[in-house]
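Worked example 3 (structure in, sequence out).
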């Protein structure tokens, strides 16, 4: 297109370079924050998934008046939730794999972690560590109250 002065309308090379420089500076300023957010979301978000599963199991034990056990394989992320009445009859409530965020991985002292909640909410349980991005988050259950807890371990945890 030709302007009223008879010149072609458009952007000069200098204007384009200035805009690209501004965009590059903006991207460089935001990139570390995005990387930090991704690292921070990995283990904490995955720990929340594990805690959610355990809280649902505890709630079922309180509501159902029996024992509810969660068996979790940290290596495969597969879980099994079983309800027991105490009369030797167990029923499967749920099973599947935990959908964990990012590169988070589960670790535990044994290859199959066990979390057992009684009808009063108290628990006998193992501890799960969720690791990723140099961070570690511990998921554990208080023995007498059965409350599911999450605590950040920090670097090298």
């Amino acid at each position: 297109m030709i302007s009223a002065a008879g010149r072609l309308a458009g952007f000069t090379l200098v204007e384009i370079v200035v805009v690209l420089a501004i965009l590059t500076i903006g991207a460089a300023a935001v990139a570390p924050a995005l990387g930090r957010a991704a690292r921070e979301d990995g283990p904490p978000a995955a720990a929340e998934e594990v805690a959610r599963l355990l809280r649902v199991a505890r709630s079922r034990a309180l509501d159902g008046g029996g024992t509810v056990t969660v068996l979790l394989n940290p290596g495969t992320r597969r879980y099994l939730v079983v309800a027991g009445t105490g009369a030797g009859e167990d029923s499967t409530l749920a099973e599947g794999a935990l959908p964990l965020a990012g590169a988070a991985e589960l670790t535990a002292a044994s290859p199959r972690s066990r979390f057992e909640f009684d009808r009063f909410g108290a628990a006998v349980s193992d501890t799960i560590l969720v690791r990723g991005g140099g961070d570690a988050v511990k998921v554990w259950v208080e023995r007498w109250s059965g409350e599911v807890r999450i605590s950040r371990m920090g670097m090298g945890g």
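Notes: The first helix runs from residue 13 to 64. The first strand starts at residue 67 and ends at 73.
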